[in-house]
Amino acid sequence: MTSTRTQPRRLGIMGGTFDPIHHGHLVAASEVAARYDLDEVIFVPTGRPWQKADQLVTPAEHRYLMTVVATASNPRFTVSRVDIDRAGPTYTVDTLRDLKRQYAESELFFITGADALAKIMSWKDVDEMWDLATFVGVTRPGHVLSNQGLEGVELLEIPAMAISSTDCRERVREGLPVWYLVPDGVVQHIAKHHLYSSEMPETEDPL
Ligand code: ATP
Ligand code: MG
């Protein structure tokens, strides 16, 4: 009898604050998708990122919408609400547990930039994470890429995009353009809702 079983789907997971999403995130996801032959990359905007607990972060619905706008044209890119719908601070291990439950038959690849990877050992329940996904660390200008000898963490050189969300927010605040650093629809969302200008929008802002 011939087996009708197909290969497990290969799912990339691109976690981030996405405040705002920019072309560095999109190139990272696209490059890992191509090199690892991924069927889909799920972008997962964080709820309240625990690493940024002391900083003002734009309301999740804005970050979610900008992520949807930025990924809409790519048939392999999708966006998940798991982290923004979960109460409390976001830990990557919870993201992976939730997505593993949702996509039990799929193989997961967690995509992370060099800076985030460097902090990996401080993450909650770090040992469990290796069982849930393969970690793919990608190069990022200004940061050293290393897996610190960890098995289960693979490294990939990607086209260098010297863009950060912090820099994009500062540029908007200073009246400098963010065209071509972020997708056009994200430029327009920022302008329409006056994000990053003088005051951050209220958390209750219904958009
Ligand atoms: P912030 O400046 O607010 O921290 P950021 O630009 O670092 O924003 P994050 O949302 O914090 O963006 O990053 C999400 C993920 O994308 C992290 O794994 C980060 O390392 C990675 N990443 C962000 N920008 C780049 C880039 N330019 N090249 C490669 N990876 C990136
Ligand atoms: Mg960051």
Automatic annotation (TrEMBL):
Q: Which InterPro entries match?
A: Cyt_trans-like, NadD/NMNAT, Rossmann-like_a/b/a_fold
Q: Is Kinase tagged as a keyword?
A: no
- Would you kindly state one Gene Ontology biological process term found in this protein's UniProt entry? NAD+ biosynthetic process
What metabolic or biological pathway is this protein involved in? Cofactor biosynthesis; NAD(+) biosynthesis; deamido-NAD(+) from nicotinate D-ribonucleotide: step 1/1
Q: Which Pfam families match?
A: CTP_transf_like
Q: Which domain of life is it from?
A: Bacteria
Q: What is its EC number?
A: 2.7.7.18
Catalytic activity annotation: nicotinate beta-D-ribonucleotide + ATP + H(+) = deamido-NAD(+) + diphosphate
UniProt keyword annotations, A-Z = ATP-binding, NAD, Nucleotide-binding, Nucleotidyltransferase, Pyridine nucleotide biosynthesis, Transferase
Cytidyltransferase-like domain: from which residue to which, for each copy? 13-171
Which GO MF terms are attached to this record? ATP binding; nicotinate-nucleotide adenylyltransferase activity
Q: What does this protein do?
A: Catalyzes the reversible adenylation of nicotinate mononucleotide (NaMN) to nicotinic acid adenine dinucleotide (NaAD).
Similarity section: Belongs to the NadD family.
PANTHER family membership: NICOTINATE-NUCLEOTIDE ADENYLYLTRANSFERASE-RELATED (PTHR39321), PHOSPHOPANTETHEINE ADENYLYLTRANSFERASE (PTHR39321:SF3)
UniProt name for this protein: Probable nicotinate-nucleotide adenylyltransferase
Protein's gene: nadD
